[in-house]
Each structure stands twice: as structure tokens, then as C-alpha cells.
Amino acid sequence: MEHIEIMTPSMIEGMRASCELAADCLVHVGQHIRAGMTTEEINTLVHAYTIEHHAIPAPLDYKGFPKSVCTSPNEVVCHGIPGKYVLKNGDIVNVDVTMILPAKNGFFGDTSITFYVGEPSPEAKHVTEVARRSLELGIEQVRHGGRIGDIGAAISEYAHKMGCSVVREYVGHGIGRKFHMPPQVPHFGKRDTGTRLKAGMVFTIEPMINLGHYETELMADKWTVLTRDRSLSAQFEHTILVTRDGCDILTTRKEVVANSEDRDYADVGPRSCPAAYSARHPG
Ligand code: MF3
Ligand code: CO
Ligand code: CO
């Protein structure tokens, strides 16, 4: 079996710093998302934010990826390349930020959100809110002694109940001083199967939820992943530390994310969206 790193307290401090910055960057992006802007402009925002905070954008030059962030609108499942695409009213767009912080020993922090551009269709709302809630339910499963399969089971049971499908070809991953490490974290699966979780493991959960079929198609650019049936797809991602009594979400946002968590129909949960959740449930 592949070795899964158990992080020491000092490694965890490094992870906290890069994850916090990645989370702050998503809050920043939310304040600027609007119809009429290109995905290239999101790249410019994220790149500038990263450099200003003395970090490195992990996607840039990663296996030849040409930009500093992934932007995945509508039927794009993941790994969309920022470019000329102009966001329009009614679009949804996932922005996936990964930061490396050299001053804190070069750990990676990886997190993403799906944003609403203006007013979404009922279908866009549905797939986005199912994805948001499915991440919450996956996180709820994480604890020392639990198993990887518990996470995917919770996510896929909910997504299917809501009439959506779960992408299978792309999964969550261990993360640390490398972008992608063991274990793989599928967003489907069976309870009580798979690797046993231990305090100190760090990995992402990042369910990609489709309105139609789960199958995907890779575009000719070798990066952009589309739904095969061109149905809408949405995704949310956190980087998570397993602890003795549950987990610690390292990419927790301190503020409500504009153009996503601020919508009255946003199905925010206490774990994945604590600031937005407590704003709605005072006391
Ligand atoms: N951030 C993505 C993930 O969650 C990976 C992007 S790889 C890139 O794993 F090269 F496309 F940036
Ligand atoms: Co990831
Ligand atoms: Co990511």
C-alpha cells in the first residue's frame, strides 16, 4: 500500500498558512466576479493576489498547465484554462485556487468554490447547491478511525437522492509539499471500505457533481474536462486535516463569500461554510 504522510505539528502550521491564503483568495475573487468579465481576468486577480502575498500559484506550469488558477464554467467539470471566455448572467463558474507558501516551508493549500454570475437558472442553482452540501456531508464523515469509503458514500448517496451524478475520473487527493499525493479520495464508494483515516493525514475533498450523466470528456487542449452530455457541473473543495475527534478544515474562510455563499438559496453548512452558516444561525 502507498505510504500516506502523517503530518507533525510544525508541518501542519505550514499547511495552515498556505490554506488560509488560498481561502482568503477565494473571498477576494468573490468580491470581483461579475458578468462581462473574462476568465482571464480571474486569472489576473488570482495571480496578483498570490504574488502580493509572497506565494506561488501552484497550477502555473504544473505538468504544463499554462495559467495560475483553474476556471471551470457551466459544463466544464474541472481544470478549465482561463482565457477569452466572457462570463454572462446566469453562468456558474468554479474557481480552484492552489497556493504554495515558500516562507512557510512550501506547503500547498488547495480550495475551490462555484460562484454565481448574476441570477442562475433553477438547474444551475440545483447542481451548485447539491455540490455545496455534498462537500459538507463528505467532511462530516472524516475522523480518526473512519475510512475513505465513508466519505464517497455520503457524497454519492446525497447526490443521487437529489437526481445528480458524481464524477468518477477525478478525485480528492493527499496534499502537502506536493500537489497530489496518496491517498486518492473518491467521491463515490462504500461505507467501511478503503484506507483507514488517521490523525495527521491531510487530503482534499472536492466533489464534482453533474446535473446529467457522470461521464466526462477531455478537450483537445488536454486540460479542460467537460461533461460528456454537456450538462452543468459544479464543484467545491476544501483541504482537510484528520484529527482525533473529527477534522480540521484548513481552508476555512473567515468571511462570507460574495456571489456564492451570500445568496439566500445557498445551502451553507456549519463545517464547509462556517462564516456564512453562523451569519444565518446567530447564537
Ligand atoms: N486544483 C486542482 C485540484 O483540486 C488541480 C489543478 S491541476 C492544474 O486537484 F494543473 F490544472 F492546475
Ligand atoms: Co485538489
Ligand atoms: Co483544487
Describe it.
The protein is an alpha+beta fold. It has a single domain, classed as Creatinase/methionine aminopeptidase superfamily (Creatine Amidinohydrolase). It is 27% helix and 23% strand. The protein is built from five helices and 15 strands. The chain has helices at residues 9-30, 39-52, 122-140, 148-161, 274-280, and strands spanning 56-57, 70-73, 76-78, 92-101, 107-116, 165-166, 172-174, 181-185, 202-205, 208-210, 216-218, 225-227, 233-235, 238-243, 246-249. Strands 1, 2, 4 and 5 form a four-stranded antiparallel sheet that branches. Strands 3-12-11 form a three-stranded antiparallel sheet, with no helix packed on it. It has a three-stranded antiparallel sheet with strand order 6-10-13, with helices on one face. α1 crosses α2 (39-52) and α3 runs antiparallel to α4 (148-161). The mean pLDDT is 98. The structure holds 2-amino-4-trifluoromethylsulfanyl-butyric acid and cobalt (II) ion (CO) (2 copies).
